Amino acid sequence: MPRPVPKTCCANRRVRRAALTLAATWLLLPLLAQSARLVPVYTVDVAERGGAALQNAMRSALVRATGRREAADDPALAALVADAPRYVTDWTTGSRGQPQVLFDAAAIERAVTAAGRALWDPMRPLTLVVLDPARPRAAADAARAQLDRVAAERGLPINLVTLPLVDASGRPLSRDALLAAAQAGGGDQLLVGRGDTAAAALEWTLYTPTATAVPSWTGPLAAGVDHTVDVLAPQPTGAMTLPESTVHLRIDGVNTLTDYATVTRLLQATPGLRRVGIARVAGASATFDVSVRGGAAGLEPLLAAQPRFTRTASAVYLYVPASPAAAAPTP
CB of 119 within 8 A of CB of 112? Predict the structure, then answer.
């Protein structure tokens, strides 16, 4: 006859499990803090307090909120522009001493949603930008200023950096190796523009953790940022008529802190998912609270193109890490 397990033993095990989960969560927080950047979507520089300046500021906020340049002149959002003063909650001063207006984020988001337009989660991936070949200092500073201006207009966090794109023997690094280098440098994805300083157009390539297909296009400096946002920001679809709700998304196969950080990074970079946050950690599973239109059914098409996640049940997915060989340089 089996001996009964003392209640104190079971209680101790529960306490140990809870302690381990708490410890894992605290250890994970510094990694997750690097996964995305909060964009101040509704804080906008203004030339003056009132009139056309406020309306232009609202147009800027709408472009950042949706990720779409056309939002500035979208007839469906015209009432927001016309009534811009009604959405002002405060005034402040920016880091350079410039006046700034603070708009009511919740009220604007309700109005944008009611108009059937998609919102882009303000927690956005930090994109490291590499120009190949590297520019001389003066040219690099000029490029940085232009890239930063366009990125601020579109609401994309970026940083122009220098990263090796080839290995010691001169062979191009693989997609996974480039992403690993970007993430080691504090970024979430990598945008590479190839072409010398005199070139009118560069060959752009975007490396993201959420897609195996590597998008590429040709265009000037501004086009590098513009097209990146077009790729990342959610596309207007029929799902916009569905209510947004919170889904408990469980990811299995999360065995290490690196896995936790990678999974969180992947979810936060998935267009259409909003407010991704850890709800609980248990063993090799992590449950996230994510806001998505259409609930669990709306979640499926968003994650269907993500090669690292395999659906096993409704709102339950298995995380499949990249194989070590995938990060090796291409032959």
Answer: yes
Q: Is residue 211 in some structural domain? A: yes
152 & 107 share domain? no
For residue 21, tell me if it sits in a domain: no
Element (H, E) at 93: strand 88-93
Residue 59 sits in the same domain as residue 131: no
> What residues contact residue 227 under an 8 Å CB cut-off, 6+ apart?
204, 206, 215, 217, 219
Residues 6+ apart with CB under 8 A from 16: none
Q: What distance in Å separates the CA atoms of residue 314 and residue 101, rounded to the nearest whole number?
A: 43
Shared domain for 226 and 131, answered yes or no, is yes
- The Cα–Cα gap between 67 and 61 comes to 10
Strand partners, 130: 192
Q: Is residue 31 part of a domain?
A: no
Domain boundary among 168, 203, 232: 232
The helix (H) or strand (E) run that includes residue 44 is strand 43-45
**Cα 291 → chain centroid:** 14
- DSSP-derived pairing of the beta strands 88-93 and 99-103: antiparallel
CA distance 84 to 86: 5
Same domain as 246, residue 226: no
- Residue 166 is part of which domain span? 123-232
Per-residue pLDDT of the chain (331 residues; tens, 9 = 90+): 555 545 555 455 444 444 444 444 444 444 444 457 889 999 999 988 877 999 999 999 999 999 999 999 999 999 999 999 999 999 999 888 889 999 999 999 999 988 888 889 898 999 999 999 999 999 999 999 999 999 999 999 999 999 999 999 999 999 989 999 998 898 999 999 999 887 889 999 999 887 766 789 999 999 999 999 998 888 765 455 567 788 999 999 999 988 888 898 888 878 778 788 888 999 899 999 998 877 888 888 888 878 889 989 889 999 998 765 444 444 4
Residue 55 gets which letter from DSSP? H
Structural domains counted in the chain: 3
Domain boundary among 114, 138, 159: 114
Same domain, 266 and 226: no
